Predict the structure.
Amino acid sequence: MKKNINQKSQRVYDTYLVSLIKENFLKNHLALYKRCITDITPPCYPTTNDFSIKGRGESYLTSVIDHPYAREEGVRSLLAMLSCNDENYVILDVFGGNAYIARLAKLLNYKGTIITNDISSYMVEITIKDKYPTTWQSADNLHCIRYKSLNGILFAYGAHHLPINRRIDAYKEAYRVLKKNGKFVLHDFSNESSMVKYFKNVVDQFSSTGHNFTHFDETETKNLLTGIGFKNIRSMKIRDDFVFHAKNQNQVLGKCAEYVYYMYCLEKIGDINDPKTKTLILNSVREILGLRVKIFNDQYQCKLNREALVITGNK
């Protein structure tokens, strides 16, 4: 009986969220809706994941709201690859969370349109409240998006959460929804990178949700994309440092520690208000990733070293 009640409640919620998504498009993004959207229905996979309210969703939101420019360096590189400064371009950010990239693009005055997608119903609700164009889909079943309707598609900041056995279908879906010559961009961290080591040795051990995910293999991914039909496939490394600014060294290091704590919900390390917890986080960062502090434009700047792997291709 309890299971039936839960299923009924889920169906009611799904219907409610779908209505919000459609209402948001019809009221605020009608031209975009007619161009790109076809069938707004719930995803076929469970929508309670690491970024739900029961996972690290609220903690993650604290990090990106308090520090919107922390990942500016990497985001600028990704948006440049997607020609996001062209006002006629429409891009789907498949692992978009609370529209972090769309929000930052707006702050940076990019002219292209970004549709934010996520599988987490919690993140979708947050995004709709601020009237950003939003879809609720799994990466391997982009059922809301019209065939050949997008100029670009981005898999970034969470793509490794998608199970390996569903990735090839996600690439096929990306190919389906792109226009001819449309751009596919995948962002992750190579298996040999210090960031993957940090995920394994720190985040997986001390996050409230763990972090046991398989990252993308460069050669395998390029071969799969080639087999699907993508052309001009390239891979490259980009700087994707976390960057912070403050009036003095203690403040800037404190910002870095707090950001890492909330981004990955490292509750098992301790209370972030305890200076010892901040010290433990900073020590882990220095040991595995590397940390640089310098004076920049009359402020202290802190950079947490991250080098990301990016793979691109055209339809």
The first strand starts at residue 90 and ends at 93. Confidence is low (pLDDT under 50) at residues 1-5. The longest helix spans residues 2-28. Residues 36 and 146 are 5 Å apart (CA to CA).
